Amino acid sequence: MLLADRMAHIDSSGIRKVFELARKLKDPINLSIGQPHFAVPIEIQDAAVEAIRGGRNGYALTQGMPVLREKLQAQVDAAWGHDDRRAFVTSGTSGGLVLAMLALVNPGDEVIVFDPYFVMYPALVALAGGKCVYVDTYPDFRIDSEKLRQAITPRTKLILFNSPANPTGHVASAEEIQGVAELAAERGIPLISDEIYRSFCYEPFVSAAKFNPRTIVIDGFSKTYGLTGWRLGYAHGPEEIIEAMTRLQQYTFVCAPQPFQWAGAAALDVDMQAHFDDYRRKRDRIVAGLREDYELAVPGGAFYVFPQVPWGTATEFVGRAIENQLLVIPGGIFSRRDTHFRLSYAADDRTIDRGIDVLQRIARG
């Protein structure tokens, strides 16, 4: 065997497999894609083009170009006022998560992850040589602080938290977040808060950094501005950890793309509220269309619904959906359970309505 042992724990993403399948179907009803369907605002496009044509195409500073990093730092300072909180620019939110894992997790360390979870989390823990310890949040996806406390062992090195959550769309309450943040602080365990969907929040958003000043926050531009292919993210947290992540970036991703950093600086001044309001409406549309036939927790954010399948396993159910040209993701990709499926409503209304029609027909037999 030529491959490293770690590859035994890293499979091709089930989501990618669905994307590949989508290319083979004629006129698929694609409710599988976890990216906004709206166009990048023209102001941001213009800023990127101006940067490219202005010759800003070379390597960026590893920590991020001042035009963006200083603007982010000012926002972070205004929001939190933490003396020891530094921001830097990453190559996408995923890049920030990779760097945080490599900076914090030793082989054999345990990382607590809430189930359901973003598909990448277990693979990233394995990449760092760690072991996932799962805290179950079914059926309503709320976090039970007592379950979290029971999951902590002397090997616990990190807690990984995501709100608004992928795949469930759950927005943790202030009480839930406070329980996680304060327990992490009490035990001296680093806490990563993945906040990439914070703009798509249809009820009050609270960051774990409010309750625990040592929280490492991972965020980015991909979802808020529809820039998923531009690979532009950022992180902020205690200076010691951010400095370590920056050193790792120097020898891995090197830097985030420079022209898109100039565009990111422009993006911070663009009002996206109309798009967020439209997604709230889409959330209501999909929930109204499914709630008679499916058990589901109404999502408070992101652009996902995570219903329970009405029969069989999620894998079997999604197979039937695909036979009807509908692409959704089986929940077993995001969970140790195969009982739910993820549906993305980041789509036009016609596609959403076609999806609702198929799901109603499948549920009613």
N-to-C span: 47 Å
Give the ordered list of helices and strands.
HEHHEHEHEHEHEEHEHHHEHEEEH
Q: Give a count of the beta strands, DSSP E runs of length 2 or more.
A: 12
The stretches of 5 or more residues where confidence is low (pLDDT under 50) are: none
CATH topology of the largest domain: Aspartate Aminotransferase, domain 2
Largest sheet, strands/sense/barrel: 7 strands, mixed
Q: How confident overall, as mean pLDDT?
A: 95
CATH C-level class of the largest domain: Alpha Beta
CATH superfamily of the largest domain: Type I PLP-dependent aspartate aminotransferase-like (Major domain)
Radius of gyration, rounded? 20 Å
Which strand-content bin applies to the residues?
5-15%
Q: Structural class from helices and strands? A: alpha/beta
The total number of structural domains is 2
- List the strand order in the largest sheet: 2-8-7-6-5-3-4
Helicity level? 40-55%
Quick one: overall form? globular
Count up the helices. Answer: 13
In the CATH hierarchy, what is the architecture of the largest domain at level 2?
Answer: 3-Layer(aba) Sandwich
Summarize the helices and strands and which ones pair or pack:
Elements (H helix, E strand, L loop, with lengths): L13 H9 L6 E2 L11 H12 L12 H15 L5 E5 L1 H13 L5 E6 L4 H8 L3 E6 L8 H7 L4 E7 L11 H14 L3 E4 L21 E5 L1 H4 L7 E5 L1 H12 L7 H10 L5 H18 L13 E2 L8 H10 L2 E2 L1 E2 L10 E4 L4 H16 L1
Parallel strand pairs: 1-10, 3-4, 3-5, 5-6, 6-7
Antiparallel strand pairs: 2-8, 7-8, 9-12, 11-12
